[in-house]
Amino acid sequence: MYDLLIAPFAEFDFMRRALVGVLALGVGAGPIGVLMMLRRMSLAGDAMAHAILPGAAVGFLAAGLNLFAMTVGGLVAGFAVALGAGAVARATQMKEDAALAAFYLISLALGVLLVSLRGSNVDLLHVLFGTVLALDDATLLLIVSISSLTLVALALAWRPLVLESVDPGFLRSVSRAGAPTHLIFLALVVMNLVGGFHALGTLLAVGLMMLPAAAGRFWTRELTTLVGVSVLIACSSGVLGLLVSYHSGVPSGPAIILVAGGAYALSVLFGPVGGLLPRFLPQRHLEA
Amino acid sequence: MGNVLAFRNLTLGYDRHPAVHHLDGDVAEGDLLAICGPNGAGKSTLLKGIAGVLTPLTGRIEGHVPAREIAYLPQAAEVDRSFPIDVYDLVSMGLWRRAGLFGGINRADRARIEHALAAVGLEGFEARPIGTLSGGQMQRALFARLLLQDARLLLLDEPFTALDAGTITDLTALVKRWNGEGRTVIAVLHDFELVRGLFPRTLLLAREAVAWGATGEVLTSHNLAEARRMCEAWDEDAPACGPVSGRAA
C-alpha cells in the first residue's frame, strides 16, 4: 500500500512538485468549473483554451520554453478573446457563445499563422500537452498564486455571480454589478486555464474544470456541496492520475484527465441525483 | 401626493420601430394602475422603460423615485429553474438593496424572509430546490422576493397569467396590501374583470395611449375596439416619424 500510494511522492522530488501543482489546480478549477457549467459555458472553456493556445505558442516561439513569455502570451490572447467576446455580447444583440466562437477562431488562425511563419514546432507539443512532472519553482508559484487569487476573487464576487446565473434579469434590475462580475469571472477562467496549461497543456486544462463539475452535478442539488464535491473530485483525480502515470508509465496529463473522466462515468451511472442506475432501479413512488 | 413618474413625449422601441409612441402622462404616488391593451401594444415595453432596462428612442421618463426603490417582475422571469439553489436563497435575493454585495443577513433579515414566505403561503418550502416548484409556487416565491425588496414602485408584468384562482386570490391580496401601504403598483393585465375589481385606474395602450383614467371610463367597448384597430402590425418600411410639433398640428 505504501509503495503504491505514498512512496512515489516520498521518494521523488518531481512527484511532490507535481502533487502540489495538481492539488492547487484542483482547488481553483473546481469552483470555476461549477460556475461555468451552471452558467451554460461548459464549452466556452474549450473555446477559451483554443484562444490561449496561440498566445502561449507565440510566447514560446519568441522566447523559447520561458515561463514568463508563455504565461503573458496566453493571458494576453485569453483576455483579448474573453473581453472582446464579452463586450460584443453585451453591446450588441449577438449571443455570447457565437461571439466567443468568432473571437477564438480568429485567435486560433492568427496563432497557427504566426507559428507556421517561424517554422520551428519541435517542442510545441510539449507546450500543448503540458509538463506536470517538470514543474519548476517559478511555475509552481504561478499556479499556486492563481489558485489563491481565484479563491479570494470568488469569495468576493460569489453573491453577484450566483445571482447572475440564477436570475440575470433580477440582478440587472437591482444592480449594475452584473457586467463587471461577468468580466471578472471570464478573467478568472483565463487565468486558471493559463495556470493549468503549464501542467496539463492548454487543451486538457479545461478537463480539470469541467469533468469534476459535471460529475458533481450527479451527487447533490445544493450549490455549496457541489463546489466541495467538484474540488474533491478534481484533487483526487490529480493525485490518482499522477499515481497511475507513475506506475504504468503513461503521460501524466492525459492520465489525470482520464481519471476525472472515470469519475464522471461512475457519477453518470451511480449518482443519486439523476444518475442512470437510481433511475432504473425499481422503486415505488412516494405518497406525496 | 406628488407624481412618482412622468412620461414626456415618450417613445420606446426596438431597431427604431416604436412600440410605445409619443406617450404623455403622470403616475401619482400611491396609484394602483393597470396597463391593458392588445398583444404588441407596448405594455411590456413601457414597463421595461420605467425599470430602466430599455432606453427611450425619444422623449423621457421623469422618475421621482430612485432606481433602487423600483421593483420589477418581468413577464417571463429569467430564473434558471435548473440552478441548484433553494427557495430560501431565491427569496432572500430580495434583500439585495439592504445587503448588497457583501452585507450579511442578520436575525432580523431572517425573520423578514420567513415572514415573506409565510405571506405568500410557502412556509415549509424553504429547503426545496427551485426546480421542484410548480408554476404557481414559483410565482409565489417571486412575490415573496418582491415583498422583501420593500420598493416604493412595483412593476408587475402579467403577474397572474397561467395561475389558478387560489393563487391569484392570494397574490392580489398582496398587491392590495402593498397599495394600502402607500406603494405605487403598475401592473400589465389582460383579465378585465380582475382590473375592474382591483385597479382604480387604467391605461389602455395601443402604442399610443387610447385612454388613461378611472378604470370604468377607460375599459369601454368603444375604447377597446379603438385599441384593437390602432395596434396594426410593424411596418418594415415605415418612414421616420416627424417632429412632434408637426405631428400635433
Automatic annotation (TrEMBL), chain B:
PROSITE patterns xrefs:
ABC_TRANSPORTER_1, ABC_TRANSPORTER_2
Q: Which Gene3D superfamilies match?
A: P-loop containing nucleotide triphosphate hydrolases
Q: What keywords are assigned to this protein?
A: ATP-binding, Ion transport, Nucleotide-binding, Transport, Zinc, Zinc transport
Top-level taxon of the source organism? Bacteria
Keyword Transmembrane helix on entry: no
InterPro entries recorded: AAA+_ATPase, ABC_transporter-like_ATP-bd, ABC_transporter-like_CS, AztA-like, Metal_Ion_Import_ABC, P-loop_NTPase
ABC transporter domain ranges (all copies)? 5-232
Q: Which family does it belong to?
A: Belongs to the ABC transporter superfamily.
Q: Which PANTHER family match?
A: IRON TRANSPORT SYSTEM ATP-BINDING PROTEIN HI_0361-RELATED, METAL TRANSPORT SYSTEM ATP-BINDING PROTEIN TM_0124-RELATED
Name of this chain's protein: Zinc/manganese transport system ATP-binding protein
What is the organism of origin for this protein?
Ancylobacter vacuolatus
